[in-house]
Structures
1.
Amino acid sequence: MPADSFLGVRGLSKTFAGRPAIQNVTFSLERGRTLGLVGPSGSGKSTLALCLSFFETPTSGEIWLDGQNLCRLNRRQRSLMRADIQLIFQEPASSLNPRFTAAQIVTEPLLIRGIGTAQTRLLRASELMATVGLSPHALATPALEFSGGERQRLAIARALALQPKLLILDESFSGLDLSVEAQVSSLLLDLQQRHGLTYILISHDLALVWRLAGEIAVMDHGSIVEHAPVAGLLAGPQHPLTIELLNASLALSLDGAPA
Amino acid sequence: MSSGALTVRDLTVDLLSVRNITVPVLSDVSFQVAPGTIVGLFGESGCGKTTLALALLNLLPAPPYRVRGSVQLRGFELLSAAEPQLQRIRGAEISLVFQDPLLALNPVMRVRHQVAEALRAHGRHDGLDSLFGLVGLPATPRMLDAYPHQLSGGERQRVVIAQALACRPALVVADEPFTALDAPRVVELSSLFRDLVEKLQISFLLISHSPGVLARTAEKVLVMQAGRIVDCGTPRQVFGKGTAHAR
């Protein structure tokens, strides 16, 4: 299984100081698809994201991406592969250097890898700005002066700079208001169609996951307790936690509110 | 007009930017919060919700901000009040709950001491246990002696709410208090807000960008856009008008 699918995770565990954060996580994901990852705080979603993006080394298990075992790479191979998997965090304000301009932020990944000249990098930056719906005129503006939604788009532009294959969005929407959320999610769908990007979308918001993801994995205490296509999961949730999450989401929808 | 817990009239805030340009942040904002009610504040990011929250507590530094208009808490004008007066009022009569409890709490201080600090700052020395009960936390040693990182996200936000309620304020301004929480926790905490209003007759100004949360909790919703209140009514009136604001 691991080698045939685009992303294959088998028996993945990560232990911090003797405490398991994720345990025996196994799943696979096809290219160009979106997996929604939901579960209560502390269920291991972010640890899984960190393991998949090389920020943490798994204690055991295997991660396969595009036919390569990520846990068996040497330093050089790993640093090359890092470009393929990009992580976008929850709080764009803390993942962007407030004193950097938009141009510095978006060109930094290219600069680090020595891609292009100053001029072509700037050109690429204005393309990326346009891709995420920001004005290229804003390239000289410091990160501090952007709104929350704009900063999140800046973070996406930076993540796209190296043309990744897999984008992991860890609660990347939670600070955004609905209209910006709608803009950013249609942007993500559009990018997926055009570039065949694969997404892992971590979110508390089931309505958002439902709109963007084809399948959902529910995590609890470090393990995946249910993994099914979105329609199937909504129609017939099996695990008590899935049912609790669905009920709570329904109560928070406008239709579920008391009249 | 002074019957409200909070009466805001023609509140206008300008920001002097670094390039010496005056940027209007809030323009002629007027509204009232009646005692024992929850008023929701809804709007896109950057529309001025958080600036409004800070302006209500007179927390915006004079340069670069210029604040005009009137903010009256139980008839007392806050915008012209002197700093020592404001210090007595903040936390005692009007308090603030932020989005991220991990940032609002001191990571190296047991939660017992953090909540007691809020009491002590206003000359009170008892009521810690009942305060934990009020926000639905057990007053057990495991809870009281915990550090913030040992608690779940929902528990942490309850500790912050306990701090905000320590002196039984007339008004709590809660700026996106549910954003960091999962859906079941949001449902629990929004019910807690309703319970607190019934039990204590306090008022909340609840900033949120979730129509569902506001529909569950608020009597009245203010819709803000580019620093102005552009709509106001019950959640049904505001969100029922179409899909412009709601999902």
Note: Chain A has ten helices and ten strands.
2.
Amino acid sequence: MATGLMVTDLDVGDVLGPVEYTLSPFVVREYCHAVELHHDCFQGIDDQVMPPTLIHLDKLRLYRHACPGGTGPTARIHYEYDAEIFGEVRVGDRLSVVGEITERYTKKGREYLVLVMKLTRVETGELLIRYTDRVILAYREQSGKAA
Amino acid sequence: MTEMNLQPGTEFRLKPRPMTRERMRWYVDAQPTIAADDGRIHTQEPTIHDDDDYARSQGLPGIIADGMVSTNWIMGLLIDVFGRDIARKGRLRTKYIAPVYENHLVTTCACVTRVTQDQSGARTIDLEVWCEDDTQRKLTVGEATVVQAAA
């Protein structure tokens, strides 16, 4: 990890993390409230679990950890979310997340970056979610693809 | 949960929702709030999801929704239909193939493509998932797999 590294500087082989944290009920409820997942398993009091989509914010956790220089000169645009779920993540779990840049390429004049992340339970080492995140580092309007 | 009679072609849809400015901002505000994890609301620098001027400076005509809003609406549909099984084992993949602008009317959809059952009785359901606008143009596309343990 290089001090001052920005997200736009990331390249193939860069490893982000690992970062450990404990999943809090506040985080799950706040996230689910923001995205209208009003289900008891997420927003209830007992037996609360993490929606697998929340791993997307672990990407930002890794960026903050590995890229203290911030986003970089251009806004990042999310292009693909791909999560394989192997086990339920529960509130109170001590978790570890690590990521690796596996691809950086240019297609139709746009630069893409692929980050593969693994979320594991610290106590057991069990792989809970493997997540592949594909972003466009600099958006140009003409192709009309963005999110 | 009662086992549904699912077959390829079985389709599920949520009621259309407008992608309002507020819905886009909720996701923006959630990010620093969750990062701080201190029970209080936090905000961040302008983004392409909540600031028109910044979005235009990045080549966009105005703010666009974060793709994860659509992905979470698909997740919500899967939870509505299958319960929390999708949070236990499975897969969800989404691609954002068209921008979602302010006040686009978005309908979240899923269609069963395959149902298989193993010897233990566990059932695997594969689905095509997508979000479309009010002209049926797809905005977000993808696939999901839900694994239901034997009853």
Note: Chain B touches chain A through 52 residues (CB under 8 Å).
